[in-house]
Amino acid sequence: MPKVRRSKKSPPSGWELIEPTLDELERKMREAEIESHEGKRKNEPLWSIFKIAHQKSKYVFDLFFRRKTISRELYDYCHTEKIADKNLIAKFKRKGYENLCCLSCIQSRDTNFGTTCICRVPKDKLEEGRIVECVHCGCRGCSG
Question: pTM to 2 decimals?
Fold first, then answer.
């Protein structure tokens, strides 16, 4: 089983509690990276990678901020080892961004009209029965 990449520095206490879940997510990430992309649209092969990266960041965020089961030292270790995305977690803390799928959905420079991505529009504001899918990450609505 592939291990989560780490530096020579030994991990802080509590690492053994989160290591199995992070190893499983890392294994899924490696499978997503080598998955065939034939017959898919240009950005579609990246969608599963974005989804798994979101899961890892959300997992660390929930453990530290919601459940308070890991220490600040272990939380900082996850940032320095790039296990969790620091910028995405910073957005999770803000009101309205609790379910944000990726950072490219809120960057206005990546869209045609200088706004946020279509997945950030609340479902009740869209036409009835319309299926929305983000071009960047494949999200079907992360505004809440």
Answer: 0.86
The crossing angle, in degrees rounded to 10, of helices 72-80 and 15-34 is: 20
Sequence ranges of the domains in the chain = 15-93, 99-144
| Sign of the torsion formed by the C-alpha atoms of 88, 8, 21 and 35 | positive
Q: How confident is the model at residue 130 (pLDDT cuts 50, 70, 90)?
A: confident
Q: Nearest to residue 117, comparing CAs of 128, 131, 101?
A: 101
Residue 52, both tokens: 């798994």
**Tokens at 122, concatenated:** 């609340």
Of 102, 96, 98, give the one whose Cα is nearest residue 135.
102
CA 59: distance to chain centroid? 9
- Comparing C-alpha atoms, which of 76, 81, 56, 74 is closest to residue 6? 81
Q: What contacts 15, CB < 8 A, 6 or more positions away?
A: 74, 77
The alpha carbon torsion through 136, 37, 51, 33 (nearest 10 deg) reads -120
